[in-house]
Amino acid sequence: MPKEPPKTDSVSLDDLRQQIDSIDTQIHSLLNQRASCAQQVAVVKQREFEQAQKFESGSDSSSAQQLLFYRPEREAQVLERVKKANNGPLADDTVAYIFREIMSACLALEKPMEVAYLGPEGTFTQAAALKHFGASVISVPQATIDAVFAQVESGQCNYGVVPVENSTEGMVSHTLDAFMNSRLKICGEAELRVRLNLLVAQGGGEGVKRICAHQQALAQSRRWLDANFPKIERVAVSSNGEAARMASQDPATAAIAGDLAANQYGLSKLASDIEDQPDNTTRFLVIGREDVAASGRDKTSIVVSAHNRPGALFHLLEPFEQANVMLTRIDTRPSRTEPWNYVFFMEFEGHQQDPKVAEILQQIEQQCVMFKILGSYPKAAL
């Protein structure tokens, strides 16, 4: 372990720099030791998997590879542990970000994972994917949420990332609808503080005739736009990334997008933090083909359709109150099977393997004409 630095009143700047160089050398050595250990873990897992295959038939090698090498619950436990063990002066989240990148780089030594996301490049969904998986994954843009699901279902991508709700604009209905006919599981979640910028091409800013953005970004910055650009046309496009791409090709177009899009397309900021709500946050779901084991700090999501009778919703909620389990989200969507029939998307604390949660699920299933567990997964650690 590195020695405690001497008091600053008895040490020179050169001494401190030498100590930093010494610490960096130790960090470098430890990083490579960790990477080597991770490679050995991959070898052991592969050997155990091959041994197991001798006793099984019809294994899906692509899903098995995902199961072998990426463990969402394990990574969530590591991030929670380092945050709890942190004594500063670095902030807890800063330490967790560093460890996220270390784990991402180590996992990529075996084979970088491919993660589909709602594109194009530069969207907040891509930023959420990189936040959750680290920069060493291969992020694969898709034009629609349905396409993200299709890429993961077919095995072309290991995981997908899709938006599910915004703190000011509510649920993303298309994501909820996509789960209805999908076999995919929710494997994790990511929360991203949405900071919106007004972006233009390098050297631009004069003669802007239109402002482009996703419809939610336009809504989230409506008051700022009314105060600063009340007469400029606002155009809703498929994504903020697409708006940034358009702005990079047309000096008369400005885009509302985040820092990732600004960097991706080489744009300049006319204004920063233009969102009307300073705590504007979007939540994203990570989707995959495998169930996730309990991490100790989990959520479970289900979709159900109750019998059409008085008190149906009350009876769905009653087991949570009786078991003292926190219900964190409930949303309704048309069932699309018959008029005026609805399904409920429910999210609550705990893992489906927990005895108390398993009992709740059993009670709810008995009251439903349709019941589907979307997945149990670790809460966002960052």
Descriptive account of the structure:
The chain has 382 residues and is of the alpha/beta class. Among the domains are: 79 residues, Chorismate Mutase Domain, subunit A (Up-down Bundle); 75 residues, D-Maltodextrin-Binding Protein, domain 2, CATH 3.40.190.10; 87 residues, ACT domain (Alpha-Beta Plaits), CATH 3.30.70. Helix content is 42%, strand content 26%. It is built from 13 helices and 15 strands. The strands form 3 sheets. Strands 1, 2, 3, 4, 5 and 11 form a 6-stranded mixed sheet that branches. Strands 8-7-9-6-10 form a 5-stranded mixed sheet. Strands 13-14-12-15 form a 4-stranded antiparallel sheet, sandwiched between helices. Strand 1, helix 5 and strand 2 form a beta-alpha-beta unit. Helix 3 packs antiparallel against helix 4 and helix 12 packs antiparallel against helix 13.
List keywords for this structure.
Chorismate Mutase Domain, subunit A; D-Maltodextrin-Binding Protein, domain 2; prephenate dehydratase activity; five-stranded mixed beta sheet; lyase; six-stranded mixed beta sheet; amino-acid biosynthesis; 26% strand; Alpha-Beta Plaits; 382 residues; isomerase; 13 helices; 42% helix; ACT-like_dom_sf
Give average pLDDT, whole number: 90
- The CATH first-level class of the domain at 292-378 comes to Alpha Beta
Low-pLDDT residue intervals, each spanning 5 or more residues = 61-67
Tell me which CATH architecture of the domain at 292-378 applies here.
2-Layer Sandwich
Structural category: alpha/beta
Q: What is the helix tally?
A: 13
Which bin fits the share of residues in helices? 40-55%
Provide the CATH superfamily of the domain at 292-378. Answer: ACT domain
- The proportion of strand residues reads 25-35%
Question: Would you report the number of β strands?
Answer: 15
General shape: globular
CATH topology of the domain at 292-378: Alpha-Beta Plaits
